[in-house]
Amino acid sequence: MKLKPIAQSFSVNYTYKLHFTQNLFHIDNGLFKNIIKEYDKKRKVKLFFVVDNGVLEHHPQLLESINAYCLAHGNLIQFTSSLVIPGGEQCKNDASYVDLVLQGINSNAICRHSFVVVIGGGAVIDMAGYAAAIAHRGVKLIRIPTTVLSQNDSAVGVKNSVNLFEKKNFLGTFAPPYAIINDSEFLKTLEQRDWIAGISEAIKVSLIKDAEFFRYIEQRTEHLRKRHMPTMDEIIYKCAEMHMDHISQGGDPFESGSSRPLDFGHWAAHKLEQMTHYNLRHGEAVAKGIALDVTYANLMGLIPEKTLKRIIKVMEDIGFNLLLPIESDNDMIKLLKGIEEFREHLGGELTITLISDIGKKHDVHKIDMEIMKQAVSDLNVMCTINSI
Predict the structure, then answer these.
(1) N-to-C CA span, the chain
(2) How much is the average pLDDT of 267-280?
(3) Residues 6+ apart with CB under 8 A from 154
(4) Residue 258 confidence (pLDDT) above 60
(5) pLDDT digits over 117-147, tens only?
(6) Does position 370 have pLDDT exceeding 80, yes or no?
């Protein structure tokens, strides 16, 4: 008897919210306890916290505040423990940190109806989210991002990851969080380079999706450079909204296709991070990657020189250093290798997002390597002249 294939199709609906607040763990702030109560109104919910050490350095009372908050709302929350993890890309490069989170999940008996609550920058959130996604095939996750970049981009999506084989995000999962909570108080203690770095993701999404949003940024470069909080709040909200809308409405939330417009500028950014041993912040590398790709777009006749100079000026006025760390032929070879690594990461056909105008993305499936080399040279000459 010939057996016919058995076909199966099902869909799963995902819903999660991005919340905005200040002083999340102040006893009188009801947001966090209400999020927990919304999940289970009848039983205490067990929580295990993973905290970025860099956040603790600037907010030394944070662990004490968490403990006090959980105790005050003990009818809803069962606090277990807090694990402090070094921040920055190192926690994604060293597998021992994933093991530490998994050990914490195990020793505190965190199950699928418990929560890992991660507080920190994008790297710690990526790493802890990956551990949460693979424990018990997925325990629930609440993200509390503490940097501009994580609040407007990396923490609002559905991806979790760590690095391997010197490749960015080689291991990862698609696992939506239960909730994300942006607390603007954490932004006030950021170093200037971290404050600026995250703005690159807002510039990115404006260039490929919304010319009016780019004009908004362009008109407020001084406010952003001088840390005007209301302006940053607006930038973060709009950028996060656009990222989440793309995930939900773009038709490919788990990136099964080869086109990833939200990775505009990222083929070079990921390689530059690796080449500099992650001394570059992700947002700084993204800014350089965007600058390179718009320079290439100009050389390819996609955008006029006037548009290129306008984009470069906005980024430099905010405070970005767009000079590429390419000092030899070997450096150039390493950088351009990032194009093939990007294709490999996506799978299938190479797709690089460029722009044909501000607010209009333009996908290409082939890069002219000689013209890209010229773009590297032209960008560095332009940046050198602008700095004089």
Answers:
(1) 80
(2) 94
(3) 122, 125, 126, 145, 201, 282
(4) no
(5) 999 999 999 999 999 999 999 999 999 999 9
(6) yes
CB 269 within 8 A of CB 282: yes
Topology of domain 192-248+259-383 in CATH is Dehydroquinate synthase-like, alpha domain (1.20.1090)
- Look at the chain and count its residues: 388
What is the average per-residue pLDDT within 236-244? 93
Fold entry, domain 17-189: Rossmann fold (3.40.50)
Reference 262, options 285, 282, 244; nearest CA is 244
The whole-model pTM stands at 0.92
In this structure, what DSSP letter does residue 87 have?
Answer: -
Does residue 192 register a pLDDT over 90? Answer: yes
Which contacts (CB < 8 Å, 24+ apart) does range 58-65 have?
A: 58/189, 59/186, 59/189, 62/25, 62/119, 65/25, 65/26
In degrees and rounded to multiples of 5, residue 233 shows phi and psi of -55, -45
Token pair 């390819």 is found at: 300
Domain ranges across the chain: 17-189, 192-248+259-383
Contact 139, 170 (CB under 8 A): no
Q: Are 269 and 292 in contact (CB under 8 A)?
A: no
Residue 278 is encoded by which pair of tokens? 């992650």
